[in-house]
Design a protein that fits this description.
The chain has 215 residues and is mainly beta. The protein contains two helices and 13 strands; from the N terminus they run E-E-H-E-E-E-H-E-E-E-E-E-E-E-E. Bound molecules: 2-oxoglutaric acid (AKG) and fe (ii) ion. One of its GO terms (molecular function) is broad specificity oxidative DNA demethylase activity.
Length: 215
């Protein structure tokens, strides 16, 4: 991929940078193959809350740290629940980070969310990381998703946009701690995946600058 953040058109929605169609069809297909390889090494799980409520998305991760939630609560872990270390973040995914947030520290975590046709994600902040000066980068693959952006505080007016396959979002700067969520997926709007649904990759720096993890 040769595009840079300077050459690719982007929109601003409440400070969230939206790169529409950042990945072309060939790049999307290659990234899906990379996601399948991640899932072979670290299979998707049904995450549950501390109270045992299943989330509607299935999750796995790549990178030094993966975000998990189970009966013990939510946290970053260096290993999949099977005991294997998370596979490395694919070069294709890392290249997106380098292109859209060139000054940022390297990503330590790539969360992979798999939405079936009925999956959603409630409004939340990404705030389990140690350095909120570092951005969050989110990549959409597969069916369209209705993404809602709120405010730093809970509640208030929100703004929604459809995310399509190949779109990339950056939550950085003043937008880093905005509430956000996915209201619904529109099954059958993309043919990228074998079945209706959507894959989201969320890249994050997890550590604070003084405690960078190593393997
Ligand atoms: O699926 C998305 O577009 C957003 C995912 C998300 O917000 C998260 O995993 O924290
Ligand atoms: Fe999030």
């Amino acid at each position: 991929m040769t595009e840079t953040s300077d050459s690719h058109p982007r929109r601003d929605v409440r400070g969230v940078q939206v790169f529409d169609g950042f990945l072309d069809a060939v790049a999307q297909a290659a990234m899906v193959a990379d996601v399948r390889a991640i899932a072979r090494a670290a299979p998707f799980v049904v995450p549950v809350t501390r109270r045992g409520q299943p989330l509607s998305v299935r999750m796995t991760s790549a990178g030094l740290l993966g975000w998990v939630t189970d009966r013990r609560g939510y946290r970053y872990e260096a290993r999949h629940s099977s005991g294997v270390p998370w596979p490395p973040i694919p070069d294709s995914v890392r290249a997106v980070w380098d292109a859209v947030v060139p000054g940022a520290r390297p990503p330590e975590s790539c969360l992979v969310n798999w939405y079936g046709p009925d999956a959603r994600m409630g409004m939340h902040q990404d705030r389990d990381e140690g350095d909120f000066n570092q951005p969050v980068v989110s990549i959409s693959l597969g069916d369209d998703a209705l993404f809602r952006i709120g405010n730093v505080e809970r509640g208030g007016k929100t703004e929604s946009l459809w995310l399509r396959s190949g779109d990339v979002l950056v939550l950085g700067g003043a937008a880093r701690l905005l509430h956000h969520g996915v209201d619904r997926v529109a099954p059958g709007t993309s043919t990228l995946l074998d079945a209706p649904g959507r894959i989201n990759l969320t890249l994050r720096v997890v550590s604070d600058e003084t405690s960078v993890p190593s393997r």
